[in-house]
Amino acid sequence: MLGVATHCAVIANVVGFVMIAVDKWRARQGKWRTSELALLGPSLIGGWAGTLWAMKIFRHKTQKRSFQLKLGLATAISLVLAYFGSRRVEADRACLSLGFFRTSPRPS
Predict the structure, then answer these.
(1) Inter-residue contact 39 to 51 (CB < 8 Å)
(2) Which distant-in-sequence residues (6+ apart) come within 8 Å of 40 by Cβ?
(3) Domain boundaries, the chain
(4) 62-80 pLDDT, tens per residue?
């Protein structure tokens, strides 16, 4: 069964992919563009793969080194947060299995 974090990462990947595609379309149309900060947002919460895939498919932001560095940093932050988040879940499960946390309210 997939957890909440996995669902969030899948959604973030789809959003990141679509945002790059829309920004490329707007660039070709000469319309108002999406900010780099907004394009990096999904990558911070696990959507870096979708963003990278869209960059490759649409050939968008591939020459801009500053964006690539920011995306690399966002990806690293996302992976570090995922690692420590998974460690926290494992620790919580271990404590629950050992009975360290009560699952029912304390009697008054």
Answers:
(1) yes
(2) 51, 70, 71, 74
(3) 4-97
(4) 999 999 999 999 999 999 9
